[in-house]
Specification:
- By secondary structure, this protein is of the alpha/beta class.
- It has helices at residues 10-13, 20-28, 46-59, 77-85, 93-104, 153-171, 189-195, 227-245, 257-267, 282-287, 306-311, 316-322, 327-341; strands at residues 2-8, 35-42, 62-66, 90-91, 119-120, 124-127, 136-141, 144-149, 176-184, 206-212, 215-224, 249-252, 272-276, 297-302, 345-349.
- Helix 2 (20-28) packs parallel to helix 6 (153-171).
- The longest helix has 19 residues, at 153-171.
- The two termini are 51 Å apart.
Length: 352
Amino acid sequence: MRAEIISIGTEILLADIQDTNSRFIASRLPALGIDLYYMHQIGDNRDRLRELIESAMARSDLVMLTGGLGPTEDDVTRDAIADAFGEEAYVVPELEATLRGFFQRRGAEMPEKNIKQATVIPSGEAIPNPRGTAPGWWVERDGKIVVAMPGPPAEMTGMWDNDVALRLRERSNEEVIVSRTIKTVGVGEGTVDEMAGPLLKSANPTIGVYAKRDGVHLRLTAKAADEATAELLIHPVEQQIRELFGTSVWGIDDDTLQGSIGDLLKTNGMTIAVMESCTGGLLASTLTDVAGSSSYFMGGLVTYSEEAKQRYGVPAEVILEHSVVSEQTARAMAHAVREEMGADIGVGITGV
């Protein structure tokens, strides 16, 4: 099954909100054996959305939309889907009753514009929304499926977990897609690509190389009848990658660099302390984002001025001879904070 995701909302295009819905859906499709080919972001425009839905249905089996299911004029998702299918929406009495009951229980009268949330088209059916007033749509015709879910993440995830994922599982081909991300540091993207060159030709699992903020990642993706078989396909390739990159590999999947460093410190019974100037406490904050970091993080100092650096042990002559922003000053900061905090490892950061 080939899929596309469409996130709807002008506020997404204006960067007023982040599109977390697409990431959520994309992360859950592999376990259903569904291949995601395209992801789109589009504003609240009925005609443009209709065109996008039509083009998506022409090349994919499953089109998933989030957003635009509210009661206002710029909530155009239902209209655009109806246009794409050439069908007229009609009010479903049961949905209308449920919607009016929602408002009555809160001591309010339903605005008539909300009636659009109680509609559906002949090829579709409503998807219950356990966390809001906007039902989703499941539309199926000629072997194509269009699923519309609300934009608010809590409503979308509730609808996905309670309904949509279960329906998709029933229609999937029983295959699963399993991924493993191997994370490296200290090796450039081009070098990683060159070193892993022969492995990149693998068809199952496929391998992709991606530059990230915490290093270069290699993502292995295998498709098989079940998760165990997919893992068997991944395992030998993962071992080859680990042999190729050795100690440059610092983690996998959801591991964080600070978490892996914390694990190394605990394993070796070592402690760390930091003195920061340029970063203003960012490194200390990052290290302490990890639960249990108090067992190895002794403390941090933000010494933004020359006087503060000297107060905690950085020799004035080092700063005078080499300047505040220098390797020598950074080394002196690292040494000073290690002594001050009684840590095994000291880190000093200075810069502009």
